[in-house]
Amino acid sequence: MTKQKIDEIMGECTLCPRNCHSDRINKKTGYCGMDNTVRVARAALHMWEEPCISGEKGSGAVFFTGCGLKCCFCQNREIAIGKSGLEISVGRLGEIFLELEEKGAANINLVTGAHYVPQIIGALKLARKKGMSLPVIYNSSGYEKVETLKMLEGYVDVYLPDFKYMESDLAEKFSHAADYPQTAKEAIREMVRQTGPVIINEDGYILRGTIVRHLILPGHTKNSVSVLEYLYHEYGDNIFISIMNQYTPVYKQEKYTELNRKVTKREYEKVLDAAVKLGIVNGFMQEGETAKESFIPSFDYEGVEHF
């Protein structure tokens, strides 16, 4: 993607469903909080993704600053809502992809990059010209515009979206996005159209396909079961579903006090039982103590600075 095209998109930004129309070229920011300059808080091997993503090699995770959703319970709030992150060029982003490949990454994992899609495409082009051949994973909140996802066709091999809410009132309460359920449905439909069924190689690493994550929220198992019912009835075994119990109450909620605790074992088992009853076999569950702050990476600019 040329600089002229990037500037055209950034000059009146509608990359995400917020449709801010912000002039990010002239340093105006929209809901995501970012202008047109790419900010990255961490670029390193990440061992805590699903087994087919991290494996023993680790996923080459690039954590972008800013977010178009900004859930009140976000575990990555330091970068999603704050300004943490170093400013880098598109060229440097391409170098980071190559450096992660040199470190042995199983894939390139783009974490919350919707507001930088034009720059990401430019960086991927540069990296591929220099020989990068890793699968590219687009790690997303699920709150995406189909038009923006279509820009990524041919650049992304694996989509890793969340599906947070089937209940619009929860989406409004916790993410100020009552349109989340319908928006996520349309986005995931486009993701699956692009990738087709999941393909995993003989070493156990994903090469292509869509894995949908769902994070169970304390006190809201009904929402979780509704999410699983929708996904399985719509896509069956063509996608993988990752059911997560790692919700961590990092920030004290003054308004939504039900979020000030972890998900109980009983709550998680209730959702897993629903998954079994539905017949879900292509998926992942979390075992052991995952709901703790040690699973939240340090946004210390590792791998971002150029030495």
Reconstruct the topology from this structure.
Blueprint (H helix, E strand, L loop, with lengths): L2 H8 L27 E9 L4 H4 L4 E6 L12 H4 L5 E3 L1 H13 L5 E4 L5 H13 L6 E5 L5 H6 L6 E4 L6 H8 L4 H16 L3 E2 L5 E10 L5 H15 L4 E5 L20 H14 L4 E3 L22
Helix pairs in contact: 4-5, 9-10
The radius of gyration is 18 Å
Shape: globular
Helix and strand content put the structural class at alpha/beta
Residue share in β-strands:
15-25%
| Residue-averaged pLDDT | 94
The separation of the N and C termini measures 27 Å
Number of helices: 10
Series of H and E elements = HEHEHEHEHEHEHHEEHEHE
Approximate helicity band: 25-40%
Give the beta-strand count: 10
Detail the poorly predicted runs.
Answer: none
Characterize the biggest β-sheet: 10 strands, mixed
Structural write-up:
The protein has 307 residues and is α/β, with parallel strands linked by helices. Strands 1, 2, 3, 4, 5, 6, 7, 8, 9 and 10 form a ten-stranded mixed sheet that branches. Helix 4 crosses helix 5 (117-129). The protein contains ten helices and ten strands. The longest helix is centred in the middle third of the chain and has 16 residues, at 180-195. The two termini are 27 Å apart. The chain has helices spanning 3-10, 51-54, 77-80, 90-102, 117-129, 146-151, 168-175, 180-195, 221-235, 265-278, and strands spanning 38-46, 59-64, 86-88, 108-111, 136-140, 158-161, 199-200, 206-215, 240-244, 283-285. The radius of gyration is 18 Å and the shape is globular.
